[in-house]
Amino acid sequence: MSIDPRGTVISTILRHDAKTTSYKIALIRAINDVALAFPDVGNGQAVAIPLRVLAEYWLAYYWPFADQHLPIWQGPRNRRREGVAQDMAFRPELTALKLEWEALWQMPAAPSDGFVVVNEMRVSRRRAQYPPSLVRAYYEALQAIAKTIEMPIRYAGPGNWSVFPRPARFDSLQQPVTALPGTQPADRCLVVKPEVWFLFRQLSLWIEALCIHQWALFTESVDPTDGRRVHRGQVYKLLTDRPGNRRPLTWERNEVELLILEGHTFTCPWTRKRIAAGVPYDLDHLVPVSIYPFNEMWNLAPTDPHFNQHVKRDRLPSPERLAVAQPILAQTYTTYGRLPSLREALREDSVQRFLSVSSPADITPERIASAAARFIEQLATARNIARF
């Protein structure tokens, strides 16, 4: 396997490839985020990424640019006889979804709400809580985006299909590939070569920074037909906004409360404080929402509220704290399994995230805790996140 330690292929696409839209930048950033979000995929093999997964990231990235009244253009809008062409092929569908979201909450959407929407729609039990019209708008936007993604895949690098091959159904791929957890036989997939996947894993922080920088510069250079040119600083703020508030974890907390009322106890993975009936606790995101907005059950654990709010906050544990926490997390997941609804939620969320727990025999509390700990450690290292 030939390794390019400087990431020349990626930097060339971002800095020197011809661009009429921001699509190529969004493609590289999405692959980079996927490599980070699925830590046990790869291991020397090519990786198959369903286009619908890349589309989820695009939905979050482009969300702040899809304002109905003050859109931020992502390319030229050429006039045609039938009207004005869209700068983004999926702008109508994404704008419609954003309007549905704002109507539901009766307030303007935050720039980072695209990440919240994707997180809510990924999890079936949370998706079921939303109006059918919003769910329908979400899938229409994803479908439109997934179709558009094939364009930058084709034109990345010199010539056609030179860096990435033409997407194909997963069940038609001939070469040995590792699929992301949850990949279906009919999913159209982008195949990333092992040496390119290695680059994304090793240079994640640098790639993200370059993507955001180049995206801000590109958007500032777009000549708007309405005379509203945006400054690169404004674009940078939109692209780096992260969810600061959480959607209520009402269902998850109610289920945990049922276990506590039945006499089960939990242990805070960070302080080892016992959590039982009458003891205050937070249902903590192990990976903070500001880093990655996962409301998946493996990422939620009852914790000491004072430590969570005043010490942990938006940081990740040190390797030493993580080693101590791992068996406690396994016990937390074991207790979740006492309730059929929580057991199924933990199973569903884990098999969609970790390749190492994809078979029924692997779905044990210990294996899930091990996978979660590896994920947290790899995320902290790749993004140089503050530790506690």
Write the layout of secondary structure elements.
Elements: H1 8-15, H2 23-37, E1 46-50, H3 51-62, E2 79-80, E3 83-84, H4 91-105, H5 113-122, H6 124-127, H7 132-155, E4 168-169, E5 177-179, E6 188-192, H8 194-202, H9 204-221, H10 232-240, H11 250-261, E7 266-267, E8 274-275, E9 282-285, E10 300-303, H12 305-312, H13 319-336, H14 340-351, H15 365-383
Parallel strand pairs: 1-5
Antiparallel strand pairs: 1-6, 2-3, 4-6, 7-8, 9-10
Give an account of the 3D structure:
It contains 15 helices and 10 strands. It is α+β, with helices and mostly antiparallel strands and 388 residues long. The strands form 4 sheets. A 4-stranded mixed sheet has the order 4-6-1-5. Strands 2-3 form a two-stranded antiparallel sheet. It has a two-stranded antiparallel ribbon with strand order 7-8. Helix 3 (51-62) runs antiparallel to helix 5 and helix 9 crosses helix 10. The longest helix is centred in the middle third of the chain and has 24 residues, at 132-155. It is globular. The relative contact order is 0.13.
In short:
The protein is of the alpha+beta class. It has 15 helices and 10 strands. The strands form 4 sheets. It has a 4-stranded mixed sheet with strand order 4-6-1-5.
Q: Characteristics of this structure?
A:
two-stranded antiparallel ribbon, 8% strand, globular, four-stranded mixed β-sheet
H/E element string?
HHEHEEHHHHEEEHHHHEEEEHHHH
Strand content: 5-15%
Helix content: 40-55%
Largest sheet: 4 strands, mixed
Distance between the termini: 37 Å
Q: For the residues shown, what is the average pLDDT?
A: 92
What form results from the Cα inertia axes?
globular
Main β-sheet, spatial strand arrangement:
4-6-1-5
Report the count of strand segments: 10
Structural class: alpha+beta
Q: What is the number of helices?
A: 15
Radius of gyration: 21 Å
